[in-house]
Every structure is written in structure tokens, then in C-alpha cells.
Automatic annotation (TrEMBL):
Residues 459-481 are annotated as: Disordered. GO terms for biological process: SCF-dependent proteasomal ubiquitin-dependent protein catabolic process. It comes from Salix udensis. The lineage of its organism: Eukaryota, Viridiplantae, Streptophyta, Embryophyta, Tracheophyta. PANTHER family: COI1 F-BOX DOMAIN-CONTAINING PROTEIN, PARTNER OF PAIRED, ISOFORM B-RELATED. InterPro entries: COI1_F-box, F-box-like_dom_sf, Leu-rich_rpt_Cys-con_subtyp, LRR_dom_sf. This is COI1 F-box domain-containing protein. One of its GO terms (cellular component) is SCF ubiquitin ligase complex. Gene3D superfamilies: 1.20.1280.50, Ribonuclease Inhibitor. Residues 459-472 have a biased composition (Low complexity). Residues 25-62 form the COI1 F-box domain.
Length: 495
């Protein structure tokens, strides 16, 4: 045993004294290391080191975005056989369909399949239905698809844009139509025509950025009824009861009942998608109330026990919501992210005892938009009741001041790393920066309205990093940027 031990020590000593090169690592381990790198520029740089690195990088790349015009087949790269996520949305110059630029459409589609045989995630610019008619059969095992189109649809038959996709891709689990211009009545009949595909969907994004038209109540119910296994659902809809097909509390409850497995629910009023910056001087209330009652909200929360992220941007008054939000904590125990728009009375903040939204103690991300009656005492109550918050946003809250935000930053100084303050009447750039001083060393991401007012600097303010403009500056309201602390200080110094 002693001899064996000495022999092992001798071998180890020789290995340490020898010149071991990085290329001595087995190729299997090198491939594992390369596969962990996802940044495109880093991978491009790695491929230029040497021929061996070039081959390993090409054989381990799983994401690829093509650009240009691929009408010439010899220009297709043939070394990315391991690509599973393929983006073809940028290979249609000047808005021309991807396959229409080739004299042999079927041959080009087959060449794409042969060049990228492992694709399961596809992003494609589908200006007309013929694109998917040729491409979908090439990858029948597609799991995730994102369609892109910025122009009005050319077909007249409802749902014709999706029929080829649903006909050939029976394993589809995710469909993203957020950048696909289509009519809201197109999707429901296509899903109803292919019930097996609809049942396999777990992620559906119809939060359309290309159109101001929202989905009507009956369309949402038809979609969710056809897709009972959805886990993530994002949609643009209409909450204004003056319009036909508006979404009310009964629709919300039926939607939750149709898809009880939802972990992410994101419903946004269509007017919020294109809304300009609000007026800080109005009282924060809209002229019309949404038809959403508190008891129905509670029933909706009870129907979604697996919910982890909830966004309800209603754009119309939902009043006295603190009772329903208290129940949210017990009905949805997994909830970590919450965003509410035009919800009033989220927290009474009368005494030190937390109430309303402040009882959601497991929240890690909270966004409150256009809450007309949120006060500093409410902010303090929220920060005391939600000690895990790492991300906090307030937008259009007219009654909160520097004092409340300072308390929030002080109480949550150990967890808070991301803050957004926008269109709050008493929180301009100077006061916002001053309020966030307790977390200035831990803040990783900051978004504030770059609106400066003329302020007089005291001696203490002159030494503070949050007020480095001599006498204050007025900047355009349009200059709103995401800035880290160091970048923000440099911006202030330049001004």
C-alpha cells in the first residue's frame, strides 16, 4: 500500500511539473464548457481562436439568427447542425416573404431542414400563409414558434394563417403572436379546428404590440376553453364596458376556471399599449370604472392556486381593492410577482398593521401603476409587509413623496436592487435620487423620469452624489432611460 501511495504521488508530481495545455482537456469536456457560453459575440470570438475551437463552437451552438437574403442556396451555412433555436425573422429584406425570393420555394424549404435538422424553436417572418405551408412540414417536432408580421394580413379566411402550423406541428407547446399582425377573430377558430394542438399548448402570448385592437371577452373565453393546459397566458383585451366584448369580472372568473394551471397571467387593456406619458397634475382617477367586483376577484384568485406572476393593467378604476388583495396572499401562495394598473385602495396604511397588498409577504416584484390614493403610509406598510422585494415600481402615483420612498429604501435596503419611479407628481429626478440614497451601493437597475426642477442646493446636497447639478437643470420629459448608479452619476456630471 505504501508503494502504491508513493507511485501515485510521483505521477501527480510529474503531471504538475509538466506543461499541461488547455487542448489536453478531452473534447467531450471542452464541448460541455463551450455549450455553457450563450453570448453570441463571445462565441463568435471563440470561433476565431483556432481551427479546433472553431469546430467545437460550431458543433455546440444551439441558437442562430440569420440575416440577409437566402435566395442563393450555396450561401446557407452548413456547419450549425446542433442549432435547436432558429430565427428566420430577419432574412426577409424589405418585407418580402422569405421563400418568395427563391426561384424554387420547395427546394429552399428542404435545404433549410437539411441544414438545421435539430430545430425545435422557430422564429419566422410569415407575411402570408404560404410561408408556414412550406416550412412547417420540415420540422414537425417544433415545440416553440414565434410568428412575426408588421403588415395587414392578406388572407380572407379566418384562421388561415395558423392552419398549416397546427396541421403539421402536433407537439407545439408555445406560440408567440406578440409581434404578429392579425385580427383577433383569427385565432379561436384555428384552435377549435385542432383540439389536440390546442390542448398541448402551455404558453400562449397574444399580447399584441402591432395592433391597438384588443381581444374581446368571447374570444378570450373561446381561446382559454380550447387550451385548458395553459400555464402562461398573455393577452391584450378591452376593459372599457362601453365597448362591445369588454372584459369584466365574470370573464376573468371564467378564464381562470378554464385554465386552472396558470402560473403566469398577463392581461393588459389595449389603450395601455400605446398610452403616452400621463399628466402628473390630474387626480389619478379615470372617468369610467371597470366592471370588476371584489368578490369576483377573490373567486378568480381561488381558481388559480398555482399562480406565480399576475399582471392586471385595467386602465379603468377598480376601487377599494385591499380586501381582495388580502385574500390573494392566501389563495395564491406561490405568487412572487404582481403588477396592478388603475387599482385603487390597494393598502389603507392607517396604522402599523399591514393590510391589503402589504399582506402578500412572499412578493419579490411589485409594480403599482396609477393608484390615486396610495400614500407614504401605504408605502411604508408595503415595505414592512413585503420584506422579500427585490424589484419595486411606482408609476403615476400622485400622493407619494420623498419621505415614503426614503422609508421604502431604508426598510428594504438588504433586498431591493431594481427600482422604477415614473410620472409621480412629487418625485422628480432630484428627490428620487435623494430618496434612494440608502440603497445606492446595492442598486443594480434604476429607471426614473429625467425631469429636473430648479432647486436650491444646500451644503449637504452639494456633497451628495444624487444632486450634482449646479442649481438644477430642466431636461426633456422624453429623456427616460434605464441607468445604473454609475451611469446615472456620469450623466448628471455631464449635465
Amino acid at each position: 500500500m505504501a508503494a502504491d501511495h508513493e507511485q501515485v504521488e510521483e505521477i501527480m508530481a510529474r503531471s504538475f511539473n509538466s506543461n499541461v495545455h488547455f487542448h489536453d482537456i478531452p473534447d467531450a469536456i471542452l464541448s460541455s464548457i463551450f455549450s455553457l457560453i450563450t453570448d453570441t459575440r463571445s462565441r463568435n470570438a471563440m470561433s476565431l481562436v483556432c481551427l479546433k475551437w472553431h469546430l467545437i463552437e460550431r458543433s455546440t451552438r444551439t441558437f442562430l439568427s440569420l440575416r440577409g437574403n437566402i435566395r442563393d442556396l450555396f450561401l446557407l451555412p452548413t456547419c450549425f447542425r446542433a442549432v435547436t433555436n432558429l430565427d428566420l425573422s430577419l432574412v426577409s429584406p424589405w418585407g418580402s416573404p422569405i421563400l418568395d425570393s427563391s426561384p424554387n420555394t420547395a427546394l429552399l424549404a428542404q435545404a433549410l431542414r437539411w441544414t438545421f435538422p435539430s430545430v425545435v424553436t422557430l422564429t419566422v417572418y410569415a407575411r402570408n400563409p404560404s410561408i408556414l405551408k412550406f416550412l412547417a412540414p420540415q420540422w414537425p417536432h417544433l415545440r416553440q414558434v414565434k410568428l412575426v408580421r408588421w403588415h395587414q394580413r392578406s388572407s380572407t379566411t379566418l384562421g388561415f394563417d395558423f392552419l398549416a402550423l397546427f396541421e403539421h406541428c402536433h407537439s407545439l407547446a408555445s406560440l408567440d403572436l406578440s409581434h404578429f399582425y392579425n385580427w383577433t377573430e383569427d385565432l379561436p377558430p384555428a384552435l377549435e379546428a385542432y383540439p389536440s394542438v390546442a390542448a398541448s399548448l402551455s404558453h400562449l402570448n397574444i399580447l399584441n404590440y402591432t395592433s391597438a385592437q384588443g381581444f374581446k371577452s368571447h374570444e378570450l373565453l373561446a381561446i382559454t376553453s380550447a387550451c385548458p393546459n395553459l400555464r402562461e397566458f398573455l393577452a391584450t383585451c378591452i376593459f372599457d364596458h362601453r365597448y362591445f366584448g369588454s372584459v369584466g369580472d365574470e370573464t376573468l372568473l371564467s378564464l381562470a376556471t378554464n385554465c386552472p394551471r396558470l402560473s403566469l397571467l398577463h392581461l393588459v387593456d389595449s389603450s395601455s399599449m400605446s398610452a403616452a406619458r400621463g399628466n402628473p397634475d390630474n387626480d389619478g382617477y379615470t372617468t369610467e370604472d371597470a366592471r370588476i367586483r371584489q368578490n369576483m376577484l377573490i373567486e378568480m384568485f381561488s381558481a388559480l392556486p398555482l399562480l406565480e406572476e399576475l399582471v392586471l393593467d385595467v386602465c379603468h378604476n377598480v376601487r377599494d381593492t385591499w380586501v381582495a388583495l388580502e385574500m390573494l396572499n392566501s389563495k395564491c401562495p406561490r405568487l412572487k410577482s404582481l403588477k396592478l394598473g388603475q387599482f385603487h385602495g390597494v393598502c389603507k396604511g392607517i396604522d402599523a398593521r399591514p393590510d391589503g397588498i402589504a399582506l402578500c409577504s412572499r412578493l419579490e416584484s411589485l409594480s403599482i401603476k396609477n393608484c390615486a390614493d396610495l400614500t407614504d403610509s401605504g408605502l411604508i406598510s408595503i415595505s414592512l409587509g413585503c420584506p422579500r422585494l427585490t424589484k419595486f415600481e411606482v408609476q403615476g402615483c400622485k400622493k407619494i413623496t420623498k419621505l415614503g420612498m426614503t422609508k421604502v429604501a431604508s426598510i428594504l435596503r438588504k433586498t431591493l436592487t431594481e427600482v422604477k419611479i415614473s410620472c409621480c407628481k412629487h418625485l422628480n429626478t432630484v428627490t428620487s435620487l435623494q430618496a434612494l440614497e440608502p440603497i445606492q451601493d446595492s442598486l443594480q437597475r434604476l429607471h426614473i423620469d429625467c425631469v429636473w426642477e430648479m432647486v436650491e442646493q444646500s451644503g449637504s446636497e452639494a456633497s451628495s452624489s444624487s444632486a450634482k447639478s449646479a442649481g438644477g437643470v430642466k431636461c426633456s420629459e422624453k429623456r427616460r432611460r434605464h441607468l445604473g448608479r454609475n451611469e446615472l452619476e456620469e450623466e448628471i456630471q455631464e449635465v
